[in-house]
Amino acid sequence: MLDFIKYLNEFSQLSEEANEDLLPKLRTKSFKKGQIINKEEQVCKNLYFIDKGLVKHYYHHKDRVFILRFFSETNFFTVLDSFVNQTPSQFITIALEDTETTAIDYSDFDELCKKHHSFETSARKLFTMAAVVNLKRIKEMFDADAAELYKEFMNENHHLLNRISLGDTASYIGISQVTLSRIRAKK
Amino acid sequence: MLDFIKYLNEFSQLSEEANEDLLPKLRTKSFKKGQIINKEEQVCKNLYFIDKGLVKHYYHHKDRVFILRFFSETNFFTVLDSFVNQTPSQFITIALEDTETTAIDYSDFDELCKKHHSFETSARKLFTMAAVVNLKRIKEMFDADAAELYKEFMNENHHLLNRISLGDTASYIGISQVTLSRIRAKK
DNA sequence: AATACTTTTTTACATAGGTTAAAAAATTAC
DNA sequence: GTAATTTTTTAACCTATGTAAAAAAGTATT
Fold it and tell me: Chain B residue closest to A127 (CA)?
């Protein structure tokens, strides 16, 4: 709960009043390993901060699974389009480990944005960062072949390597697990 | 110039003072067909609104060209990460047609965000939309094969079809032009 | 330790899409 | 309207990666 506030203040310093208004809106939400945090077709009502644990954000398409992102400790996550537009999600969010989060409800988030300029600023920077991260992912998907993507994934997620299965890693890269096995065999 | 203001107000209504402060910061910038708007390694100093024309946002990698997006009339564009962090761009922006834009400088943009809560709100919504659009592109790239991507591209950009070459279309989809020709031949 | 379950690798085969080169078609310039 | 240039298509060949099924390795449970 305090970490949520700390990290939001790191995007841009919140005013004292904004911080005071924020705290009572926060709720602790815990999820068991394997538990679905947000289903397909369900509107994502919360912005989450992970205090502990790991989640994956994915969807099914033609019998295959694609993982958009993993989120772990000290990161915010939500189902972006579903949260900001309050529309049904195309994606599924599931806990890969027992996970503890600090969450804020959409209407509270929206209200704080309206009430406090400094909160709005942090929100802007938070979502801008999300846009930049997504752009980076598009570029990576374009210009790297599967072997490079795996290498990059390992570099950027070395702290998560023993927590994420090879099957999930393959789904993140966008290849079959067989292909990932072949890539690993070549080294 | 007035369209820039109109479209920014559509994200979220700006206060009267914000609108008044915004107008004198806007500059008209015109580019000839083929002219580079922002080079690689160059910091993108402006947020642009296209009054007329068409630009592509791309990069080179291993002798291939990848187009991240096309931008045309009544759309904002910038080199996202370069603009928001004022760091060198990895991408190139070039005019595909004679293009007229209304532009605002980063420092003016930043100042208006700080000064006017309502401007900050519009900025948040603008960048949030960019994040959602990028997420959608990631999903498309994952779950659609080249033929589907081409079909989707045509559906979503029918107004641009005769303005974008097949070579550029292929670079947007992430395939070679030869492959695109094959796809077209099959229909 | 033996059984069951899950994860990862291996093999065989099929297909999508890359590369290169050349031809054909369309567009632009003079 | 002919030549020059650019764009698009076609063909031949090759590689990466998909699918399916089986084997192997690893983990958990009693």
Answer: B128
Q: What is the pLDDT of residue B68?
A: 94
Q: Which domain holds residue A73?
A: 2-133
In sequence order, the β-bridge partners of residue B88 are B43
Residues of chain B with C-beta less than 8 angstroms from the C-beta of A121: 113-114, 120
Domain end position, chosen among A112, A133, A154: A133
pLDDT tens string B121-178:
999 999 999 999 999 999 999 988 899 999 999 999 888 888 999 999 999 999 999 9
Residue to substitute from B77, B85, B142, interface A, most A β-carbons within 10 A: B142
* Contact yes or no for B80 and A131 at CB 8 A: yes
Which residue of chain B comes nearest to A135, CA vs CA?
B134
Domain count along chain A: 2
3-state secondary structure chain A: CHHHHHHHHHHCCCCHHHHHHHHHHCEEEEECCCCEEECCCCECCEEEEEEECEEEEEEEECCEEEEEEEEECCCEECCHHHHHHCCECCCEEEECCCEEEEEEEHHHHHHHHHHCHHHHHHHHHHHHHHHHHHHHHHHHHHHCCHHHHHHHHHHHCHHHHHHCCHHHHHHHHCCCHHHHHHHHHHC
Q: Of all residues in chain A, what percent carry a pLDDT higher than 70? A: 99
> Do residues A185 and A112 share a domain?
no
Q: Is the pLDDT of residue A2 over 90?
A: no
Mutate to test the interface with A, among B124, B141, B148, B176 (most CBs of A within 10 A): B124
Question: pLDDT, tens digit, for every residue of A37-62?
Answer: 999 999 999 999 999 999 999 998 88
For B10-67, how does the pLDDT look when each residue is reduced to its tens digit (9 = 90+)?
999 999 999 999 999 999 999 988 899 999 999 999 999 999 999 999 998 887 889 9
Please name the member of A66, A120, A174 whose beta carbon is closest to the beta carbon of B117: A120
Predicted pLDDT of residue A187: 65
